[in-house]
Amino acid sequence: MSYIQKSLGDGETIIARARFHTLYFFAAWLVLLVPLALLLAALAQAQAQPDPYTVAAGILFVLGLFTFLKMMIRQWSTEIGITSHRFVEKYGLLSMRTNEIALPNIEGVKVTQSILGRIFGYGTVKIEGTGVDSVTTPAIADPVGFVRAIQTAKEHIAGLTATTRV
Fold this sequence. Notes:
The chain has about 170 residues and is an alpha+beta fold. The protein has helices at about 5, 20-45, 50-75, 115-120, 145-165, and strands at about 15-20, 80-85, 85-90, 95-100, 105-110, 120-130, 135, 140. Helices cover about 50% and strands about 25% of the residues. Helix 2 packs antiparallel against helix 3.
């Protein structure tokens, strides 16, 4: 069970979840496989003892492995979602950090997309709230759809608040 599901209050439902874009997954594998290919090519060319190219390729592979693990752990341990009452972001594997902003406290939402982000449909979302620091998501798939989900949830909760005041 995910953190967001565990933290739901009474009558609270999950409206939308953000996920990392597929290109993030491919970039992580690229960071691992390119240095691995260089290392294998250097090992195939190496004589009895390693030459400087083999050592450099080995160092690149180790760096690529650590970067790959960091990227994948970030992807596996991050949850971003909108519930009927709040925005929730949780990240961390061994230690956990969360950012939560109640929907009525969300003042502004900004989408940032590069040219490639516009073409492939990924970008970051910055959420600014009353009395809290702004929260910027990692590059997520369909950031415009996620912002639309935030706006829909805000309108819904504003409608509920207006009807209970009458």
